[in-house]
Design a protein that fits this description.
It is found in: Endoplasmic reticulum; Membrane. Its main location: endoplasmic reticulum. This protein is mainly alpha-helical and 758 residues long. It is built from 33 helices and two strands. It is elongated and about 120 Å long.
């Protein structure tokens, strides 16, 4: 649909575009840079962006990937697709008090498709999609920067002209190789930012299509304006920042399509100048289009608000310390300091870290803190740029600086803490979109320097050097994101005061079995943050396994004292108290854990073990049954039920439970072994033998499996096979209890049979 906005005073749109091309300075004129045809420019950008991040393709799932992908039930086929629209990014219900309210259903949908096509959690497919997305976005940037730097102009055939081929290529390369983008590309969770950026740019390009020249004169297509709004909504369904494109489209419309002088309009508004009506607000339908953008944005936000609910996300002080400061002055100073650090990461992306919370950036509490200089530098630069953007007599300069600042600041607003508290101090991924503004300002600055410089080639070589350094930095940083060990260790030099960094290094070491080293890092995490309950819990667990029960109890007791609803710490405290034979306290700790986490199968399992130790067999069976109801694949609970029923002579019931368990977990060799023992005692030798052999096939190095099969053959009278499996069992474990005695009995029996036969 075409909306005609005729005005007798307005010149023909084609003539206006032609005049703009003649009168506006061309950024490329004084720039010494590569001039390539559009398709070659896009190929170069795609190849270089691929080169930067290609080595991340075979990386592991790291950091937040575990929660957002591996532990996210929304990725699995059994979860209805409709649930994605009622859950947050991490798979929690949006109505839950613990939800982060990060509503990104389309991103989760792409994860689910990845999972289904790969047939499981294989990270290669996830990484490849991220790399392809970044390459696609970088290619689109060539078109976007050609519009932002060269203006929106069309040929007589309605084809958009690229009036800044050199500077748009430079800006796209700067974007493609910026090291701060590594988290978005190499970290799978960063797909939210990539998808958001993709639809963000498509929305902008769609909005530009609304102004293609036609015979009517000053026309625009309502269809493409509405398409732009829809694409903005899609961007927001990938990540919250996407909605900001509607504001940027309005800014672009005012500055580029209507060529408004913002300062002039402000002055006329202040003086109530009646000539404001002729300032261009109505002449080309600007007011109508802005109304469409605002109405669309308001509708999108309302729908999101209805789905998400009114409750704010729940964050803790360690996530964002400044937002919990009592003093408004302290909050304001620290927020501005965070902004300056984000700006520094764009200017000098050398110190990069996967997490900037937990003491990584200590609060500024006084004006005597030397870091105030960073705030002053930031605002000095911003005010200077804003003054030039508003007051410069050069309309071309005003337009580029305003667009650069707009793309730098507006997409960053949702992460600024101005409208709501966010759950981080600094997050490199949220700078993905604002870096567009940085690339515009950098490229414009380069063009101004080129205009003044006598030796333009030296300046071009310097910029080329920056690009090459960034390519190498991207490759290095991508390799660090390939595994958790490399990622966490890389952060130690950047944020040595960050307790979470030490915690994650310790956790990684503990997972690899290096408990001694893990203890050191956990202790350092607790030293840096004495209220770090998760570090206390993990340290307490390791000490418990090393039988250092006294210190383990102290740490876990402190953890639940600091956070009374910490269910995992209550359960672990119960395990320690059970080991110390303080059974009543252990039982109370287990029930407290269950009180705070109703569906806690592991706690029911440990409670069952406590009851078994106290010979409260019925209570033990009930606890284990609860564990299997909550988690049907809980092998240990099933096994303990079978063994307890077997030991108490309830063979029929043990057999029934064993068959039920194997029906749910058919490939669990430990369940096969337990049920085979029961069947052997019930003289169902053939079925017992089959299960033993199946268990041995799954786990051939288990001495007890061979030993118990030998006992079965011994009872069954199959003495040669019994002898064979006794020998295999003793070879695997010479100290296996009872096996040596049984083997000696068998040998004596065989000797007696030989004597009788002789």
């Amino acid at each position: 649909q075409i909306c005609n906005q005729h005005n007798a005073e307005a010149p023909n749109l084609e003539q206006a575009f032609h005049r703009m091309a003649q009168t506006e300075p061309n950024l490329d004129h004084d720039v010494s840079w590569f001039l390539l045809p559009s398709y070659w420019a896009k190929i170069v950008v795609a190849l270089i962006s691929f080169l930067c991040f290609a080595n991340s393709y075979d990386g592991d799932f790291v950091f937040d990937d575990s929660e957002a992908i591996i532990n996210n039930k929304d990725l699995r086929a059994e979860t209805p697709l409709g649930d994605l629209w009622h859950h947050d990014f991490w798979g929690s219900k949006l109505s839950s008090n613990t939800s982060h309210k990060s509503y990104r259903p389309l991103t989760v949908l792409t994860f689910r498709i990845n999972y289904l096509f790969a047939g499981g959690f294989y990270p290669v497919g996830f990484h490849v999609i991220n790399i392809i997305l970044h390459c696609t976005i970088s290619v689109l940037m060539v078109d976007v920067f050609s519009i932002l730097l060269g203006g929106l102009q069309f040929s007589n055939k309605g084809r958009r002209l690229n009036l800044a081929p050199k500077t748009s290529l430079l800006a796209a390369l700067l974007f493609a190789v910026h090291p701060v983008h590594t988290e978005c590309v190499a970290g799978i969770v960063g797909r939210a930012d990539l998808l958001c950026a993709l639809f963000f740019l498509l929305s902008f390009l769609g909005y530009c299509k609304a102004f293609r020249e036609n015979k009517e004169g000053h026309n625009f297509s309502i269809f493409w304006v509405l398409v732009s709004v829809i694409l903005g909504a899609v961007a927001m369904l990938c990540k919250e920042q996407g909605i900001t494109i509607l504001g940027l489209n309005a800014v672009f419309d005012a500055l580029v399509i209507n060529k408004l002088n913002v300062l002039e309009i402000i002055q006329k508004l202040l003086h109530k100048d009646k000539s404001l009506e002729n300032a261009g607000l109505l002449r080309k339908g600007l007011l109508f289009r802005i109304t469409l953008l605002m109405s669309g944005g308001a509708s999108i936000l309302y729908i999101r608000w209805r789905i998400m609910g009114t409750g704010p996300p729940a964050f803790t002080e360690v996530d964002n310390p400044a937002s919990f400061a009592d003093s408004l002055f302290v909050r304001a100073i620290n927020y501005n300091y965070y902004y300056s650090l984000n700006a520094w990461l764009l200017l000098c992306p050398w110190w990069l870290c996967f997490d900037w919370s937990m003491g990584c950036i200590p609060l500024i509490k006084s004006v005597s803190d030397w870091r105030i200089i960073a705030l002053a530098a930031l605002w000095f630069c911003l005010i200077g740029l804003i003054c030039q953007a508003l007051c410069s007599e050069d309309s071309h300069k005003r337009r580029i600086l305003t667009l650069g600042l707009g793309f730098l600041i507006i997409p960053f607003l949702p992460a600024s803490n101005l409208f709501f508290r966010v759950g981080f101090v600094i997050a490199e991924r949220v700078i993905y979109l604002p870096s567009i503004g940085y690339c515009i300002l950098f490229t414009y600055g380069f063009s101004l320097l080129s205009k003044q410089a006598k030796k333009k080639k030296i300046l071009a070589v310097a910029v080329l050097g920056i690009l090459l350094i960034n390519v190498m930095r991207c490759a290095l940083r991508s390799s660090q994101w390939r595994s958790e060990e490399q990622l966490f260790r890389s952060a130690l030099s950047v944020c040595p005061l960050n307790a979470k960094v030490h915690y994650n290094v310790g956790k990684n070491l503990a997972d690899k079995g290096n408990q001694s080293a893990a203890i050191r890092y956990y202790r350092e995490a607790v030293r840096l943050n004495p209220k770090y309950v998760h570090a206390m819990n993990n340290l307490g667990n390791i000490l418990k396994e090393r039988n250092e029960l006294q210190e383990a109890e102290e740490l876990l007791s402190l953890a639940v004292q600091i956070q009374p609803d910490f269910a995992a710490a209550w359960m672990n405290l119960g395990i320690v108290q059970n080991s110390l034979r303080r059974f009543e306290e252990a039982e109370q700790s287990y029930w407290t854990a269950i009180k705070h986490r109703k569906k806690y199968p592991d706690c029911y399992y440990n409670l069952g073990r406590l009851y078994a130790d106290l010979n409260r067999h019925i209570d033990a069976l009930n606890a284990w049954r609860n564990a299997t109801v909550l988690k049907p694949e809980h092998s240990l609970a099933w096994n303990n039920m079978i063994i307890l029923l077997d030991n108490t002579g309830n063979l029929a019931q043990a057999e029934a439970v064993g068959r039920e368990a194997l029906g749910l977990i058919p490939n669990d060799h430990s369940l096969m072994f337990s049920l085979a023992n029961v069947l052997g005692k019930s003289q169902k030798y053939k079925e017992s033998e089959a299960l033993f052999l199946k268990a041995i096939k799954a786990n051939p190095n288990a001495a007890s499996y061979h030993g118990n099969l030998a006992v079965l053959y011994h009872r069954w009278g199959n003495l040669d096979l019994a002898k064979k499996h006794y020998e295999v069992s003793l070879k695997l474990d010479p100290m296996a209890p009872g096996t040596k005695e049984n083997y000696n009995l068998l040998r004596r029996k065989l000797e007696q049979l030989q004597k009788k036969g002789g």
